[in-house]
Amino acid sequence: MNSKRQSKKRDEPVAGSCYACVCTATSREHVPPKNLFPEAKDFQGEDLRQQLITVPSCDIHNLAKSQDDEFLMVCLAGLVGNNSIGYRHNFGKVGRAVRRSAGRLLQKIFIAPQRLYRVELKDNKFVDVLWGSPDVPRLRRCFGQIVRGLLFHDFGRAFEGQVHIHLAFLHLEAGNAKTFNDFLKKRLEMDLVDCPKLGSNPEVFYYQRSEPDEFGLFAYRLRFYGRVEVMAGVLPAASNPPANIIQKFIEGGIKTIVTLGPEEFEFN
Ligand SMILES: [Zn+2]
User: Fold this and answer.
1) What's the mean per-residue pLDDT of the chain?
2) Gap between the terminal Cα atoms of the chain
3) Helix (H) or strand (E) holding 21
4) Residue 128's beta-bridge partner residues?
5) 96-100 long-range CB contacts below 8 Å, 24 or more apart?
């Protein structure tokens, strides 16, 4: 009964071309992948798969067909700091997938040897979490496809232009990269302050989209399990941003202070 409900997609035809390229669509792809949303059997019947977003997709750009969906699921659901849904998903579906593969799944996903940590939540409640070095280029590619899927969903056509993914949840050592991360987060927070949170299962996933600036650039913020944050800068092909002088200063090693509201971000 559950599987029937879970596989229900919106009654949209598989006609037309892929959300990410000019190929003919062969299926509808969930954006983000369906397996990130826990099944009702792991949540005492609670439905966390309501009105999932789907877009027409070719085989190449279907994350499920490339097994990138499994990669994403294990990477995201196992991260330290997720809300309780992320944790429980980790112990349900993710745990089953890992056990089925006898650990090979983890070896495929983490580049460095993975470790198991025991973390105390509160009141003597412990959870085991996995950590290693995730395959960052693959993560970036997956999120790039998710953002292109959301762009299709939001605007009704394949997006032409560049999508720059920033994995805000990765741990960074102090330095320019960390300062830049903090700066981007703050900047986006200010841009998104009045933008609605979109998505029907916000404890699992929601996203926000900023208004285009004077050059046509805009941004997405994706949030998974209440905690895992991914940012995307979107540059439509028609946009014409000026050269970024601040970026040149930072790259050139020049001491640069960028002010945002009351906060200062110091580079180099
Ligand atoms: Zn495609």
Assistant:
1) 81
2) 58
3) none
4) 118
5) 97/70, 97/73, 98/74
Cβ atoms 142, 72 nearer than 8 A: yes
Longest dimension (CA), the chain: 62
* For ion ligand 1, residues whose CB falls within 5 Å: 18, 20-21, 23, 58, 61
pLDDT band at 12 (very low <50, low <70, confident <90, very high): low
| Distance from residue 61's CA to the centre of ligand 1 (Å) | 5
Buried-state track 57-95, b at ≥16 Cβ within 10 A, e below 16? bbeebbbeeeebbbbbbbbbbbbeebeebbbbbbebbbb
* CB distance 265 to 179 below 8 Å: yes
Distance in Å, CA 158 to ligand 1 centroid: 10
pLDDT tens readout for residues 32-76: 999 999 888 877 778 899 999 999 999 999 998 888 998 888 788
The residue among 186 and 251 whose pLDDT is bigger is 186
